């Protein structure tokens, strides 16, 4: 067999302290996972109905690379999030076994074309164009769970041009990492290589060309970059 065209490169994330890269299969994201962010969006967090969406695997931006300002928006927003990488997958994974599937953790930005999202919400349309655009998922290097354990209560923060924009403790997530894995595995067969963005706290706001961001998940990972 030969491919009809050259096969696409597999998007991959550096693993801290190694020369290995983690190949990304899919990127899942949960919405409204911090009560203060749900409130600022005029919504309420609902434990009965987790909201999931996805981004293409090749939306990642690695190595603190520049992020090209996306087309078709004048309201690009940052959402700083803890990111989980899966070593193994499965269906109907029980909460009690969910963390066994985790390879490591990172910090990332769920970049959002907020103006397109507002239109989609108003019309009842899908969020894909608001969330799943090119370069919409800057992500730090991964830290191995086998080294650092499973972070349950860590400071998550984002500054833009040195000014604090978002900060929280990941212990205030509405769905824990284990619960998110469990819920996703009821909808999809999770696979090794899947990434999960675990939601953002309050303080989402505009990013402009030239802005420099610095995201940190304390004790785990740091991410820097610039909008160009
Ligand atoms: Mn988000």
Poorly predicted regions are none
What separation lies between the terminal Cα atoms? 41 Å
Quaternary organisation of the protein chains: single chain
Helix percent reads 10-25%
According to DSSP, the number of beta strands is 17
| Rg from Cα | 17 Å
Task: Outline the structure in words.
The chain has 228 residues and is an alpha+beta fold. It has a single domain (12-226), classed as Alpha-Beta Complex (Fumarylacetoacetate hydrolase, domain 2), CATH 3.90.850. It has 6 helices and 17 strands. It has helices at 35-40, 95-98, 114-123, 128-131, 145-148, 177-187; strands spanning 12-14, 21-23, 27-31, 51-55, 60-61, 76-78, 80-86, 102-109, 112-113, 137-138, 143-144, 155-160, 163-169, 195-197, 205-206, 212-217, 221-226. The strands form 5 sheets. A 6-stranded mixed β-sheet has the order 4-3-14-7-8-11. Strand 12 and strand 13 (163-169) form a beta hairpin. The chain starts with 11 loop residues before the first strand and ends with a strand. The mean pLDDT is 97. The structure holds manganese (II) ion.
Task: Write a compact overview of the structure shown.
This protein has 228 residues and is an alpha+beta fold. It is globular and about 40 Å long.
């Amino acid at each position: 067999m030969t491919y009809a065209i050259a096969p696409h490169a597999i998007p991959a994330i550096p693993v801290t302290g190694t020369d290995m890269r983690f190949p990304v299969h899919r990127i899942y994201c949960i919405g409204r996972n911090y009560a203060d962010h749900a409130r600022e969006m005029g919504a309420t967090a609902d434990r009965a109905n987790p909201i999931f969406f996805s981004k293409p695997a090749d939306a990642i931006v690695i190595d603190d690379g520049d992020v090209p300002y996306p087309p078709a928006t004048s309201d690009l927003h940052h959402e700083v999030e803890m990111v989980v990488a899966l070593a193994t997958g499965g269906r109907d994974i029980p909460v009690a076994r969910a963390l066994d599937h985790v390879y490591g953790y990172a910090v990332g930005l769920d970049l959002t074309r907020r103006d397109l999202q507002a239109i989609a919400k108003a019309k009842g349309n899908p969020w894909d164009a608001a969330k799943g655009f090119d370069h919409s998922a800057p992500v730090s290097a991964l830290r191995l769970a086998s080294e650092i354990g499973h972070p349950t209560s860590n400071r998550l923060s984002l500054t833009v041009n040195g000014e604090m924009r978002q900060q929280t403790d990941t212990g205030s997530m509405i769905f824990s990492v284990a619960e998110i894995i469990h819920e996703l595995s009821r909808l999809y067969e999770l696979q090794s290589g899947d990434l999960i963005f675990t939601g953002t706290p309050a303080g989402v706001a505009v990013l402009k060309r030239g802005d420099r961001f610095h995201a940190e998940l304390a004790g785990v990972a740091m991410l820097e970059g610039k909008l160009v």
